[in-house]
Amino acid sequence: MSVRRFISKQIKQTFPNNALHTYCKIQTLSNIRLLSSTTASNHKKRNVFRVLDGTISKTSAINNNNANFEKLSKLHEQFSKVASAGGGKKAIERHTIKQKKMLVTERLKHLLDDDADFLELSMFAGLQMEYGDIPRAGIITGIGKVHGKWCLVVANDATVKGGTVYPITLQKQLRAQEIAEQNHLPTVYVIESGGAFLPLQSQIFNDGGRTFYNEAVMSSQGIPQIAIVCGNCTAGGAYVPTMADEAVMIHKKGYIFLGGPPLVQAATGEIVTAEDLGGATLHCSVSGCTDYFAEDEAEALELGRDIIATLNITMNDNTTTISEEPLYDPGELPGLVNTDNQMDIYKVISRITDGSRFHEFKTKFGDTLVTGFAHVHGQLVGVVASNGELTEPAADKGAHFVQMCGERSIPLVFLQNTDGEDSTVTNGLKNGDKLRAQAKLMSVVSTSPVPKITFIVGNGVGPVSYIMGGKAVSPHFLFCWPNAMIGLTEPQVVAQEICASKESLSTEDQAKIYEKCNKESTAFYGASRMWNDGIVLPQDTRQVLRQCLSITRAYRPIQPVQAPVIRM
């Protein structure tokens, strides 16, 4: 018997009928799967970007830094407690027991999918103002999800001064609308307001109408404007629901009128009830100012959710991104900050980015500005971080990098810690070259078409603060760490110049000037006056950045860039 016939006979005995064909098929599939698995495994091992060295030793300096930061954390806790207390115990009891209304925080729980995912903005606004404490400026603003869609919410807290609008209230609402417009966020107004605080009307009236302008402009841009009237909606505030795309009103709780019953009686002598003058029955069935009639607050807020469900908007999908925790603990960030706000910025970055990975751009050129790419919760970002004085090479590098991110539609994350400018340079050409480079970077940052998210992690002083994603260039979000110092220059320099300009100042007066300058440069002072969008503890930076990136991505159209990248 030939060898071929022998092998054929053996195979037939081993694999009767079609078993051989089946066996071969299984083996082929197994080999393909093995190859695919090996290939996928190889790809998985080849991570993007290099890992930063973020190791720190537990030295006395780190311990001192942690001890100093503990004081700031306690101050942050105190501010949070005052802000969360609203109008105080008596006002809360009157609102909930006598008027039988929900607190604003309870309303948000009914409106949002999960209030734990709510990014509150400007929580400390209104604290320690010249006219007293106005907790949360009398309104809660923030961004949360309704039926899975990011929405910006502006909700009055009627326990704070009866929902009266103060100048700081107006500033907070205007900033919220700016964020909504920048990020194309549907806006929900949960209204209960007594109108402007008349003793300060001169500081409110001129900019007050801007809220209505913003509402109309956003609606024209296809950004939905929804109003839920939960209480009084008086004077100028009456325009908010009337100008909204859709409005809900609560029976015998919500009222809309330019002037309430006391004003009508004073002007005409006519006695009229609030319900007859501007109740839900009138506006839903006669005037048509509102669209949905609700029996109670729970129904009104559910109707608000239903309206969001009808908007027919889709968010850019971000579910396929893979997130990786940093190799170094974000909880160690406070220990990196010394009392002079000096820190190793690479160790900061290593505690924020996925896998502590960072692809640095132009490492050896202009090294007082750190630029590069990283992922945060799976999303690619361009990082621009202070690392000393913004020199001419550093500014040139920054302009190149920011333009590149704009062309590639990559969001920018600024980690700002500016140094005071060197005023001792006497070389005119050197000064001019530096100024030119900084002006170029300012222009590029100002006109960049991508989202800008800024964290002032140390000092935000001088014109360079504007360039590094400061308030002047309208970042999509601007947050501060509790240690941040913000101002024209360092507070001690300001105090020295003020004291030098005055003759015969006593030691006590000089001390007061230094104290005032230091206080007005703190992150807390700035937060209370709406100079930032809130104070974030260092260890929470990555989490807040995750929310901001998700929000800025949600409805952002990709805008083609019509110009090339100019290298230097």
Task: Give a structural overview.
With 568 residues, the protein is α/β, with parallel strands linked by helices. It folds into three domains: 49-84 and 320-484 and 522-568, 2-enoyl-CoA Hydratase, Chain A, domain 1; 87-309, 2-enoyl-CoA Hydratase, Chain A, domain 1; 489-521. The protein is 43% helix and 16% strand. The chain contains 21 helices and 17 strands. Strands 2, 3, 4, 5, 6, 7, 8 and 9 form an eight-stranded mixed sheet that branches. A seven-stranded mixed sheet has the order 1-10-11-12-13-14-16. Strand 4, helix 6 and strand 5 (187-193) form a beta-alpha-beta unit. Helix 6 (167-183) packs parallel to helix 8 (210-220) and helix 18 runs antiparallel to helix 19. The longest helix has 27 residues, at 19-45. The termini are far apart. 43% of the residues are buried. It is an enzyme of class 6 (ligase). Pfam families: Carboxyl_trans.
